[in-house]
Amino acid sequence: MIKRSDFPKNFVFGTATAAYQIEGAANEDGKGPSIWDIFSHTPGKIMTGENGDVACDHYHRFKEDVQLMKEIGLDAYRFSISWPRVMPDGKNINQKGVDFYNRLVDELLEHDITPFITLYHWDLPYALYEKGGWLNSDIAMYFRAYATFMFNELGDRVKHWITLNEPWCSSFLGYFTGEHAPGHKNLQEAIVAAHNLLRSHGHAVQSFREEVKDGTIGLTNVVMKVEPGDSRPESFLAASLVDKFVNAWFHDPVVFGKYPEEAVKVYQERGLQVMENDMDIISTPIDFFGVNYYTRTLVVFDTTNPLGFSYVQGDLPKTEMGWEIYPQGLFDMLVTLKERYRLPLYITENGMAGPDKIENGKVKDTYRIEYLEKHFEKALEAINAGVNLKGYFIWSLMDNFEWAYGYSKRFGIIYVDYNTQKRILKDSAYWLKDFLIS
Ligand SMILES: OC[C@@H]1[C@@H](O)[C@H](O)[C@@H](O)c2[nH]c(CCc3ccccc3)c[n+]21
């Protein structure tokens, strides 16, 4: 049985959350609307018709939540800052919003929990969306100013920063499939948004080097293990191409200063415009990649689809999200990332949505314990294979607003009763507590 002491001494175990998914207080103390506030209030966008107005009420309950993290024995906590809470119009400061994050950071430090901050986890100030949002190249300057302000405000106490959470999701789910805010369905917009997201990332890293000299900064991507869904050679080709679009497209430019060749041609015909010195900014050196790993993606050759491929369902056991449980993919991707980019890595998200039910005041989420155990084992295997893996953040600390699924998907190791806001440690939290002292 795997033990915490099998991991390197300074390896950090933590949990991850995001502002819009847990804070609530959506219109309180001067916070401005984000694109997710508007999207979640737009009929038909959220499967359950719910929104993040209250969520887990973390804005008011953060002391209790930090106490629970301490009780479990977490080393670290990854959370995001709501840009429109600190800058309601995307530019001018709302001191009450800033004060909340100062209080949260101080509470974490008082409990010996290391804060890891994500600057952007999808909740763009709506005021900036009205100026074009990620489609307007000026967004990089707004993001740089926001990042610089936060580095100055919290950089004396917070030494680990992530610029963006999953630019692939922000651009392709937000601007191509339309499943996420702002709900556009335009491939050209998705490509432009992705480029501006990466430019914004690069500008924030440049500022960080001036403002927080003893800190580390990285980029978190969703990392999908893309495999062929059948044995046709064309499907192997399709899988390798999809891997370029979803994985390499958001890693290569940050390290090599160039987009993957095979994909550039496709995108240049669809509106990608790279200006002079964009790639130099995007490839400003970072200290680590954050890896959000959940499952594999199966792809088959498909001429009926204009892009030449389609996704297929695999036959492995699945979580409540319909995602296959595939721990081997975590090992494979950690090794792939290490060999290609030679950067330290953090698993910034891994976890599962389960059919969590309260029975006699307990949640017997044995399936989540097994899921975490298997993925912990693969992470350790990767470390022993030479991957410089520095930490592992479970998604998530507590059940929360699961974007287009509303509150119907529970990822937490802590159960949230949304009627009473009562927090109940699931069996997986007790298992983790024991693991962390093993
Ligand atoms: O869905 C669970 C979590 C979200 O709650 C987080 O906010 C977000 O960072 C996050 N990203 C992913 C992976 C996204 C993804 C999976 C499979 C296919 C496409 C995208 C899963 N999650």
UniProtKB/TrEMBL annotation:
NCBIfam families: BGL. Its EC number is 3.2.1.21. Substrate binds at residues 21, 121, 165, 294, 395, 402-403. The active site is at 166 (proton donor), 349 (nucleophile). GO terms for biological process: cellulose catabolic process. InterPro entries: GH (IPR017853), GH_1_N_CS (IPR033132), Glyco_hydro_1 (IPR001360), Glyco_hydro_1_AS (IPR018120), Glyco_hydro_1_beta-glucosidase (IPR017736). SUPFAM superfamilies: (Trans)glycosidases. It comes from the Bacteria. It comes from Fervidobacterium gondwanense DSM 13020. Keywords: Carbohydrate metabolism, Cellulose degradation, Glycosidase, Hydrolase, Polysaccharide degradation. PANTHER family: GLYCOSYL HYDROLASE, LP05116P. GO terms for cellular component: cytosol. PROSITE patterns: GLYCOSYL_HYDROL_F1_1, GLYCOSYL_HYDROL_F1_2. It catalyses: Hydrolysis of terminal, non-reducing beta-D-glucosyl residues with release of beta-D-glucose. Pathway: Glycan metabolism; cellulose degradation. This is Beta-glucosidase. Belongs to the glycosyl hydrolase 1 family. One of its GO terms (molecular function) is beta-glucosidase activity.
